[in-house]
Amino acid sequence: MTGGEVALDGRPILRGVDLTVRDGEFLVVLGANGSGKSTLIRTLLGLVPLSGGSVQLYGTPPGKFRDWGRIGYVPQRLSVGGGVPATVREVVSSGRIARRRRFRRTAAEDRRAVADALDAVGLAGRAGYPVQALSGGQQQRVLIARALAGEPDAFVMDEPTAGVDADSQRLLADTLAGLRERGKTVVLVAHELGPLEPLITRAIVLREGRIAYDGAPPAAAEAGVDTAGHVHAHAHAHTGVLNGWPDVIGSRAAAAEAGATGEA
Ligand SMILES: Nc1ncnc2c1ncn2[C@@H]1O[C@H](COP(=O)(O)OP(=O)(O)OP(=O)(O)O)[C@@H](O)[C@H]1O
């Protein structure tokens, strides 16, 4: 995204956002309630129109992008269209649809991918249940499984840990660790990092629709450690790449802010 601007109901929600997500990054989007985190990732996916600037997905504007099988989106909430009853397996299987454009695939491969995804989120025993019968946390896991089933290159997740109990959070962290090992790209919005923290290679902090920090994840920043991979991102925050944002945001301020949002 370059110079991304979004206005909703005439109110500026994103302002001058420059963000390039690199392959293999594990990027967390932090910020207070209403700072624009969901809007940012929805705009990156072309779900919210820009009022200024531009977005590209793998080099193509969202309106012309056809390779949706490369991206697995986990929205904040499950919305199964029109209240039509669907089972857990059906929702997770729908994650395979976008792959048709990319790969020849067989029914056996589809079944395996869906079963693996259900296993990964601990819902194998619930495959035949109507999703509406599940708790909020379990529905969240169904959405994660749907994205996993698609075997995309990049995952974009809006608060995957919201309303999920501690055991499920650890399960998710294990799953995400596996994705990271396999070189997948992960962008996720989070309030609490919890067990995800060690996986993060880069953090951005949104404040009133602007990127107020972009660099090392909070714990590493606090310790003054720049681990491999986010040196560049860190340097960006200090060399004024973030257009128009005063170049005063140090690691400690960001770590403090990230800590504050963690409590929100
Ligand atoms: N469809 C919409 N129309 C008008 N305003 C909206 C719309 N969606 C979001 N907003 C406003 O945009 C601002 C940013 O919302 P957004 O959901 O992106 O924030 P967030 O950082 O993800 O917040 P949270 O942590 O609460 O999910 C909020 O003030 C919200 O009220």
Automatic annotation (TrEMBL):
SUPFAM superfamilies to which the protein is assigned, alphabetical: P-loop containing nucleoside triphosphate hydrolases
Q: Mention one GO molecular function.
A: ATP binding
Q: Output the superkingdom of the source species.
A: Bacteria
SMART domains assigned:
AAA
Record-linked Pfam families:
ABC_tran
**Keywords on this record?**
ATP-binding, Nucleotide-binding, Transport
Signal peptide (UniProt feature, chain positions): none
The ABC transporter domain covers 1-233
Name it: Metal ABC transporter ATP-binding protein
From which organism does this entry originate?
Microtetraspora malaysiensis
